[in-house]
TrEMBL record:
<keyword id="KW-0472">Membrane</keyword>
<feature type="transmembrane region" description="Helical">
    <location>
        <begin position="34"/>
        <end position="54"/>
    </location>
</feature>
<protein>
    <submittedName>
        <fullName>YIP1 family protein</fullName>
    </submittedName>
</protein>
<feature type="transmembrane region" description="Helical">
    <location>
        <begin position="133"/>
        <end position="152"/>
    </location>
</feature>
<feature type="domain" description="Yip1">
    <location>
        <begin position="7"/>
        <end position="181"/>
    </location>
</feature>
<keyword id="KW-0812">Transmembrane</keyword>
<dbReference type="InterPro" id="IPR006977">
    <property type="entry name" value="Yip1_dom"/>
</dbReference>
<keyword id="KW-1133">Transmembrane helix</keyword>
<feature type="transmembrane region" description="Helical">
    <location>
        <begin position="164"/>
        <end position="189"/>
    </location>
</feature>
<dbReference type="Pfam" id="PF04893">
    <property type="entry name" value="Yip1"/>
</dbReference>
<feature type="transmembrane region" description="Helical">
    <location>
        <begin position="74"/>
        <end position="95"/>
    </location>
</feature>
<feature type="transmembrane region" description="Helical">
    <location>
        <begin position="107"/>
        <end position="127"/>
    </location>
</feature>
Amino acid sequence: MILGHLFGLYTHPKQEWRAIDKEHEGVQSSLSHILLVALLPPAFAFISSVFIGWRIGVGSPIYLTQSSALAMSVAMYFALIAGVFALAYLTYWMSHTFGSTPTYTQALELAAYTATPLFMVSIAAIYPQVWFLMIAGLVGIAYSVYLLYTGVPILMHIPEERGFIYASSIVTCGLVLLVSIIAGSVILWNLGIGPQFSH
């Protein structure tokens, strides 16, 4: 069921990870979850940049044109989905090093459900103040990392001690992916594919 595990991941994460491990609903369920939850960041980024305006320090809010915001939102959506699939592949690729033999579906489930809090915290973009978004982002990242550390031993069927090192490696890969996406955005901006501001 789409978003069926969402409530449990926030209220009792370890039990929910065990339920996910027991059911293994397959690639289609994980894909549906990713496609739906990954809509939140671009949707709220579009709303805040076109209709509310971003405030950086004092002064008037900054707005984007609708066409520019839409293009950036679509690009963000596909980048987020690609990032989850890349993280799942890296999780799967590293698994044998830590004595685990998961399927790619298990790695995708781990990546999809771990990324969920980070995607959901994008609701904070309705109040587009930089300090507020940074606090909300840190909360989302912290809970995503917590889900990762609790989920790895359960989904990968390895002891918690080994799971801790495995999860730390996944976090490192996630940070590299994030930096790669940011670097790609900067390169596109330098090529002239950047935001267009409305006045």
